[in-house]
Design goal:
alpha/beta; five-stranded parallel beta sheet
């Protein structure tokens, strides 16, 4: 609040009067900017896609190019549990009982993070993930843009099957772009590589079916709200043929995202 100097001070001090005028002018410009829509507001974007479809790669590109604030529910949960916040202690109790934190609690954690990000470009990753979560979230906060990464199932299964790891170090090899010097052997130790259970075809197929059952209905929810767009990279077949599906998708997604931000009046 601007405190106006006493009348006697104003009459005796032109400097004080100048300060007051400047303060009042600044406040009026602030109000005018808000009324005209020029005030930078928080823009919330949700990125989603099949597990193993390259969502993380696309997120990194968005963060780099648009200076997005990345909100991952996994990171938030760990932060609040480690900090022993009120919400974190509730999450910890569920974890100790071997249960998942309820949707309402996870939503509250995300809302707490969002409150601190006025004027920022926010990228949500991992929440909302289900139709129930989407309805709860949008009952309290708006999602301005929903970006959906579309990759064929067979490509995801193939990509996962090519991924092998060295158990001792955690080094990851992919036979389609950074294969080991000797097949099945770690470059540094010569020890055998293994395939994680999560990368085995049957496990990948199970996760993809879960995505279709649980997450796909959320995409339709945002289609109906008019904020959803999906990207498969097919307009850049040259990049897909070069085994660069993520680059092909981003070539489509980036200009769309720029247009959406301009339409929303977002000023970086």
């Amino acid at each position: 609040m601007i405190r106006r100097p006493p009348r006697s001070t104003l009459s005796s001090s032109s400097a004080a009067s100048d300060v007051y005028k400047r303060q009042t002018g600044n406040m009026l410009r602030h109000v005018q900017n808000r009324l005209s829509g020029h005030q930078a507001r928080k823009i919330v974007t949700l990125i989603s896609g099949k597990p193993g479809g390259g969502k993380g790669t696309i997120s990194k590109k968005l963060i780099k190019d648009f200076d997005c604030v990345h909100i991952s529910t996994g990171d938030i949960l760990r932060k609040h549990v480690a900090g022993e916040t009120e919400l974190g202690l509730q999450v910890k109790a569920y974890m100790a009982a071997g249960k998942m934190a309820p949707t309402e609690l996870v939503a509250d954690l995300v809302f707490v993070e969002l409150e601190e990000l006025e004027g920022k470009l926010v990228l949500l990753d991992g929440f909302p993930r289900t139709l129930e979560q989407g309805r709860l979230f949008t009952s309290k906060r708006q999602i301005d843009v929903a970006l959906d990464i579309v990759v064929p199932d067979e490509e995801i299964v193939k990509r996962a099957s090519m991924r092998w790891v060295h158990p001792g170090s955690g080094r990851v090899y992919a036979y389609d772009y950074n294969p080991p010097k000797e097949e099945g052997k770690d470059d540094e130790t010569g020890e055998s590589l293994v395939q994680r259970d999560d990368d085995k075809p049957e496990t990948v197929q199970k996760r993809l079916q879960e995505y279709r059952d649980v997450t796909l209905p959320l995409s339709q929810f945002f289609v109906e709200k008019g904020v959803h767009a999906e990207f498969d990279g097919l307009s850049r077949q040259d990049l897909i043929d070069a085994n660069k599906r993520s680059d092909a998708i981003y070539a489509e997604l980036k200009p769309h995202f720029e247009r959406q931000l301009n339409a929303l009046g977002y000023k970086a």
